[in-house]
Amino acid sequence: MALPIYATPGQRVWHYFYLTFCIFVLFFLVAPLIAVIPLSFTSSPFLNFTPEMLHLDPEAFSVRWYKSLFGMCADIEDAASTMCHDKWMTGAARSLYYAVCSTVLATFLGTLAALGLSSEHMPFKRPIMAMMISPLIVPLIITAAGMAFFFASVNLSNTDAGIILAYTILGLPFVVITVTSTLVGFDRGLMRAAANLGGTPAYNFFKIQMPLIAPGMISGALFAFITAFDEIVIILFIGGPQQFTLPRQMWSGIRRRSARRSSPRRPSLVLFSIILLTTLEMLRRRSERLRGITPH
Amino acid sequence: MSATPETIDGPLLTADGVPLKASLQKSLRRAKLRAALLVAPPLLFLIFLFIIPIGSMLTRSVDDTQINKVLPRTFEAFDAWDKKSDPPEALYEAMYLDLKNAEKIEIGQASTRMNYAEPGWRSLVKVTARRIKKIEPPYKEAFIKIDDRWAELTYWRSLGIMKDPITFGYYLNAVDLDYDFDKNIIQQDENRRVYNLLWWRTILVSVIVTLACLILAYPVSYLLATLPMRYSNLLMICVLMPFWTSLLVRIVAWMIMLQQNGVVNDTLVAVGILGDNNRLEMMYNFNGTVIVMTQILLPFMILPIFSVMKTIPPSYMKAAQNLGATPTLAFIRVYMPQTVPGVGAGCILVFIVAIGYYITPELVGGKDGRLIGNMVAYHMQRSLNWGLAAAMGTILLFMILLLYWIYDKIVGIDNMKMG
């Protein structure tokens, strides 16, 4: 993107204007996430930059929000204003439980579907594929409304099982998409060779095919996991008082106009997303290497 | 068929003596069956927990059977009445028998439904049902003694709207229309017209967000596609990071940035662009919804455009310039037409997601930034007018399925890529 030496002044101006615009857009994307990290260390009960913070006064910084996040309320003076209680941790544990269960289920079902759909002999391939991806397209509010009516009629609302099943539906399309696209690069000759050498279909799948499509399965599972962990719409419609997940806890925190409370989790969740991103990038490179394509 | 290879002894056989064609067909059938068996469990799972619930929601939007089950005699007597004269004794008697025989919960549900047809029905029915045991014939006088609204023709005539087990009334209500008592379609009362405004606002917000995303995404995608790999990977993280961060976290972050004494306003005041007492109002209104949705949906636009731009060889632009085009002309005439598939995919994707948004407008939209998704939630959870919620959801769903179908035609759902 370097400017050639023969560029006219007009081209130069345009070029720098263009670069500035791009930097602005990238800044627009990440600025809110970066700005909140220092804010979570504030000692003020409100979430804005106090003049003391701008002068880097050590008094203005504290880890009180993090303490209340982990339920260590003993040494916080005004624990009530910080909304210090252990619901954040129990909520996180509950979210983790739902996310893990639904991810396992979605990965299993999604891989089955992708294996069948990538077979050249599968009838009605296109409509079935469209149906499998539809939970991704239908707005969450409509999915939630439909499930709320239906789950109430089969006694599944306000139960853990109902929420896990609902989250499995949301995660399924991700696994189907990622595993299908991994299977495009899969050499079917390998399976025929394995069968020729006397392996049973199940043995061949676990020994030959699964290790090769694992990157697709893992990245699909990651998408399913993050979707379930961060899900808020469905839980508001079919969750009972027992099903208080972390996003739901945050939701009610925000709704009570105490947005200040949800700040501390933010850096930890930003960190979490960086870890996920790195894993995905590594998986992508690995699968490209396996397929004999090197990153250019 | 002449395609069957013939030998002197007849058709070609496999080692175990079966004709080759039959054997091939058998193995094909087996492969088909195996693929179908693999797909069956996830497909059934999806049908039972996703397709059927959404389908049952669709039926709920036209369903009017409940009230017909509670008040069968009343509707029969209603048919016999000429709808102009005073309601006859038989109608009152039928209503009495229906209310007496129905369960309390059923009456509650029915009266809620009746209230949508004519406001006031619910209290009227509830008051009467409470004293039903004391009523003695003649029923007409007894009913009017309980509440003199029973003498009014309006209530009785409104029964005509509800007597069919299938109604399109909820759909009409969802677009600010209504039935009159003879089931002609009329405009909703002026003070109850809210939904058309919301539909327009939803579409307007989606169009603005899509255009804003396109304007912001196109240059950045070009930069990402033309930079050397090691730089573009770094910048790509800026694009993907918000994509992977919790939605609620991003919304709270924007609240902190945009509120009255938030980071943006503080900065503008500190720099001196704004006075301290005329800070910008960027949150809890229309602007808040648009700004936050644009940031949230921007990656959905950048990724498809970027992946198309990545495939365009830079030599085309060089060739065009070699042939005498200025850089601008070469860009417009040679480069841009090739990016159209990516732009189309990105626009439809962003529009589809934007039109069904609920969480963001709910938290940052305030009063004039609410969209149709919020209305669906409101009728589901607060007003409990489930028929109307289902009707609005269905209209929204069909708009999205139409766009999804177009997307499938342009890009193909198989080409959908993640991250």
Structure report:
- The complex is a heterodimer of chains A (296) and B (419).
- Chain A is mainly α.
- Chain A has 2 domains: 9-69, no CATH class; 87-290, MetI-like (MetI-like fold, Orthogonal Bundle), CATH 1.10.3720.10.
- Chain A is 69% helix and 0% strand.
- Chain A is built from 12 helices and no strands.
- The longest helix of chain A has 31 residues, at 9-39.
- Chain B has a two-stranded antiparallel sheet. Chain B has a two-stranded antiparallel ribbon with strand order 3-4.
- In chain B, strand 3 and strand 4 form a beta hairpin.
- The longest helix of chain B is centred in the first third of the chain and has 41 residues, at 20-60.
- In chain B, 38% of the residues are buried.
- At the A-B interface, helix 1, helix 4, helix 5, helix 6 and helix 7 of A face helix 1, helix 10, helix 11, helix 12 and helix 14 of B.
CATH topology of the largest domain in chain B: MetI-like fold
Please summarize the sheet with the most strands of chain A: none
Spans where pLDDT lies below 50 across 5 or more residues of chain B: none
What does the overall shape of chain A look like?
A: extended
The CATH architecture category of the largest domain in chain B equals Orthogonal Bundle
Counting structural domains of chain B, the number is 3
Number of strands of chain A: 0
Brief rundown of the structure:
The complex is a heterodimer of chains A (296) and B (419). By secondary structure, chain A is an all-alpha fold. Chain A has two domains: 61 residues, no CATH class; 204 residues, MetI-like (MetI-like fold), CATH 1.10.3720.
Label this structure with key terms.
heterodimer; A: 296 residues; mainly alpha; MetI-like fold; 2 domains; 69% helix; disordered C terminus; B: 419 residues; two-stranded antiparallel sheet; 19 helices; 2% strand; flat
